[in-house]
What we know:
CATH architecture of the largest domain: 3-Layer(aba) Sandwich
Order of helices and strands: EEHEHEHEHHHEHHEEHHHEEHH
Structural class: alpha/beta
Shape: globular
Strand order of the largest sheet: 5-4-3-6-8-7
Number of helices: 13
Bound molecules: iron/sulfur cluster
Mean pLDDT: 89
Amino acid sequence: MVICSAGCGKNAVLKRPKTGDALCKECFFWAFETEIHNTIISGSLFKCGDLVAVAASGGKDSTVLAYVLKLLNKRHDYGLKFVLLSVDEGITGYRDDSLETVKQNRDEYEMPLKILSYEELYGWTMDAIVKQIGRKNNCTFCGVFRRQALDRGAALLGVDCVATGHNADDLAETVLMNILRGDIARLQRCTAIVTASEGAIPRCKPLKYTYEKEIVMYAYFKRLHYFSTECVFAPNAYRGHARAFLKDLEKIRPTAIMDIIHSGESLSVREGVHLPERGTCSRCGFVSSQKLCKACVLLDGLNRGLPRLGIGKTSKVNKAIIESNKEKSRSAEEF
Ligand code: SF4
């Protein structure tokens, strides 16, 4: 029998994937929670009195996030209030089931819940979008709409910030994907623990340095209720390759995940490469680096029966839409 390496004298029941330490359950819980607390404090993620929206999908990450935030808030007297914010993409057999888990979290953690649906915000469900565009670019639509839906939900609820369940593996995958695409300019933003665009409510990632395997272990040993089925429209092949590569690296060298995140953090934006300035969309008023935000561009394509219009370079697409709008108003005037 291996004794817990934290020195409590109990038998170890697990080996921490992040450090290789053999720990008993209680010492693992303490180490896991303390690391998240340290991330919150060193990143100054919250202020006393903040109302925090926890982006909740019913999956393991957001369930553990809500549970640990509630626990740390009590243990360290952060003085925070919480609300769960969920987005219903309209995916039959996936989101409808996972939202039931979110409702269970709402009752168990005693946090109010707000659900916003793509159907009410955009007039389209993901089921309907996939019917129109097929299974190739569906995650582009879904990701763009979800980002904006969270902004809209946060504004509606009047929260001070949105906490998301992105974990260390998610971040390392995103760093790899940006490097593989040659998109070095995005590294700073994708590794930032707080992202705050002007006029938008900031978002933070308290699980930024928490390994996915440890989140699963924590949820398992704490017997938390979460939903673990994958989305029925999950073909995101590029991320899938980055994930498989990362898992292979992690097998040989568990610190690879943290090393990749630290590389992404320290790689500075190359001279002459500028991140687009963030402003607001001239149509919907939400955050955008272009005249029209990506959500409005994609929506325009869908509503015109030209869903591929929004896939590709945003500036070219914006020009095409603006030109086509001018054309339409000219014809209307002539008529
Ligand atoms: Fe949306 Fe794609 Fe995620 Fe499914 S896998 S929820 S379609 S982003």
